[in-house]
Amino acid sequence: MNEEFEPRVSELSRDFNEGDLTVQIDIYEDGEGGWLLEIVDEDNNCTVWEDAFDSEQDALDEALDALEDEGIQAFVGPVQETDGSL
Questions:
Q1: Taking the alpha carbons of 47, 48, 51, 55 in that order, is the dihedral positive or negative?
Q2: Strand partners, 37
Q3: Residue 19 and residue 4: Cα distance in Å, rounded?
Q4: What is the DSSP string of 17-82?
Q5: Residue 81: what pLDDT?
Q6: 43 domain-assigned
Q7: Is 81 part of any domain?
Q8: What element of type H or E holds 14?
Q9: Domain tally for the chain?
Q10: Which band of pLDDT confidence, cut at 50, 70 and 90, is reported for residue 79?
């Protein structure tokens, strides 16, 4: 059987705002009983944690702690400039 795994996104995923900056906290299943965490800025730059978390709440707590400790600016990358060609 060749089923493709579709991760479930946690209901704890959310936007996080600080000043005029916003990032998305994404929490989703890893297919092995753990939860993955990434923080994505408005330009689709992302910071991904390598290790899975035991619970959705553990992942959210880690994201909020990191945003508080390091500040949102640490998770906002440079604007990706393109020349319009693909």
A1: positive
A2: 27
A3: 40
A4: EETTEEEEEEEEE-SSS-EEEEEEETTS-EEE-SSPBSSHHHHHHHHHHHHHHH-GGGG-------
A5: 55
A6: yes
A7: no
A8: strand 14-18
A9: 1
A10: low
**Residue 58, CA distances (Å) to 36, 46, 48, 71, 75 in order:** 10, 19, 15, 19, 19
Are the CB atoms for 49 and 37 separated by under 8 Å? yes
Q: Which long-range contacts (CB under 8 A, 24 or more apart) does 37-42 make?
A: 37/62, 37/63, 39/63, 39/66, 39/67, 39/75, 41/75, 41/76, 41/77, 42/76
Domain that holds residue 23: 14-75
CA distance 47 to 70: 13
pTM of the model: 0.84
pLDDT tens by residue, 54-74: 999 999 999 999 999 999 999
Q: Is residue 39 part of a domain?
A: yes
- Identify which of 68, 70, 36, 42 has the alpha carbon closest to the alpha carbon of residue 55: 36
Question: How far apart are alpha carbons 78 and 5 in whole angstroms?
Answer: 32
In a domain, 9, yes or no: no
